[in-house]
Every structure is written in C-alpha cells, then in structure tokens.
Design goal:
By secondary structure, the chain is an alpha/beta fold. The protein has ten helices and eleven strands. The chain has a six-stranded mixed sheet with strand order 5-6-7-3-8-9, sandwiched between helices. Strands 2-1-4 form a three-stranded antiparallel sheet. Strands 10-11 form a two-stranded antiparallel ribbon.
C-alpha cells in the first residue's frame, strides 16, 4: 500500500527566496506527526504544498500515490486560526457543515444527515451548546474546536493541521491532544505544525524537523535528538531533559536560547 504522503524533491520559492529546498519526505499511514522548526522554516508552506495551495518550483507531492485533486475528499485541513476571517457572519453549525461540502457538492443543500454529523462532531469537541452561536462571538480556543469539528465531519483519512494549539488554554489543548490521538488510533494520518518542543515526545509518535531543508524525519525516539534539534535551530537552543521515562525515551522539560 502506498504511504499516506510522499514528498519528492520539493522546492518552493517566494520570489527569489527558497522557502523549501529539495525536500524528500515520507509520511507513513497511521502516524501522528509533528512538524517542527524555527520561524520561516517552511512548515506552513509544506502543509500548503501538500494541499496544492502554493506553486512548486520543482518536485511533487503524492497522497496515497495520487495527486491531491484526485484524493481531495480524503484530506481535511485545519488552518492557522489567525488566517481565518472570524467576523464572517455565520453560525458554528454552518461552519462545521462546510466540512461536508466536498461530499455533497456545492449545489446540494445540507440535510438532516449533515446536521446530525455536525451535531455529533460538535459534541465530540465539547461545543454542542454553541451550535447556534455566531463564530465571531467565541473565544480563540472555542473557535479552534469548531474548526476541528469541521475537519471531523469530513471523515478524512489524512488530517493536516497548522498550529492547532496556538492561543488555546490548557483545557482545550488537552482536549485537542486526546482527539488527535483518537484519530491516530482509528488509523488516520495526522500531520501537525507544532512549536512547543517540550510536548513533542508526549503528544506525537513521529516527527519531522525542518529548516528550509529537511533535517530529519521518523519516529520521535529516533529523530528527536539534541543533535538534530541543534541542526534545525542553528545551534541556538539548549535543552534540559527530565529523567528517562519507563520506555527509555527522555523528554524535554525546558528550552532556552543560548
């Protein structure tokens, strides 16, 4: 069976500045993967390249061995919260049902089935009682939960999420982590742009370290090392590790600039 995502010789440039350079990346099926790297490393551009939202100077991206347009219904996307116009006059329920448009087509109206799926997804993310609320009236964490519900109703096989923990409180973060791990347990592939190095070993089983070029990608216990992290961040980060866990895999307890 083909891998969930295959990136081959990918180069993306904005003007004359390369944002991704000659990236080769394989994402197996059924992993929960963090994409980490400094600001400007190309993390969001990598996600957008998979979604065919940015032009490629070279290379290709395949999902289950096919181009994105061929399998778009199998892919769900949660963008950065800051990239969304939250003042758009629509309700929470309507935002979630937008996730069904790929299956319905743009000219069929959502019916009882779609409303039931939306209600179930909102219940799963703890937002059922806000279904009729205007999206602009929600807090940042609540808005993020709504976008996760929209992704859930797509019933996708691959989920791409751009910093879903950004600006959320601890309770929402725990809820999101539980949801992502539930998706992985169901055999879904989940790729998350993530910035908190301390939580990578706790939340994820796969990691990709990126800084324009690919530094390393693979199981967290193999690639999430001090040496790889220093290569990724240009040697400007030091780490304090807690005692080894029962599985022999140490985790980060802190980070600071040198």
């Amino acid at each position: 069976m083909p891998n969930a995502i295959e990136v081959e010789d990918l180069t993306v440039a904005y003007g004359e500045k390369p944002v991704l350079w000659d990236v080769d990346l394989t994402v197996p099926r059924g992993v929960l993967m963090a994409v980490v790297g400094p600001n400007g490393a190309g993390k969001t551009t990598l996600i957008k390249s998979v979604l065919n939202l940015v032009g490629k100077a070279a290379g290709q991206v395949l999902i289950y061995g096919k181009s994105y347009p061929e399998v778009r219904r199998l892919v769900a996307y949660v963008p950065q919260r800051g990239s969304v116009d939250w003042d758009f006059p629509t309700s929470v329920e309507d935002v979630v049902m937008m996730g069904r448009y790929g299956a319905l087509g743009w000219f069929r109206k959502p019916g009882a089935k779609e409303r039931g799926l939306a209600a179930a997804a909102l219940e799963k993310v703890g937002m059922a009682r806000f279904a009729g609320r205007q999206i602009s009236q929600l807090s940042g964490g609540q808005q993020q939960r709504v976008f996760l519900a929209r992704a859930l109703v797509q019933d996708a096989d691959v989920y791409l999420m751009d910093e879903p923990f950004q600006g959320v409180d601890a309770t929402t973060e725990r809820a999101i982590v539980a949801l992502l791990q539930e998706l992985r347990a169901a055999g879904k592939t989940v790729v998350v742009v993530h910035h908190d190095l301390q939580t990578v070993p706790e939340y994820f089983d796969w990691a990709t370290l990126l800084n324009v070029r690919l530094i390393a990608s693979g199981p967290v216990e193999r690639v999430f090392t001090d040496d790889n992290l220093r290569l990724t961040y240009g040697g400007h980060v030091s780490f304090i590790r807690r005692p080894a866990e029962a599985n022999g895999n140490p985790g980060m307890t802190g980070e600071r600039g040198l």
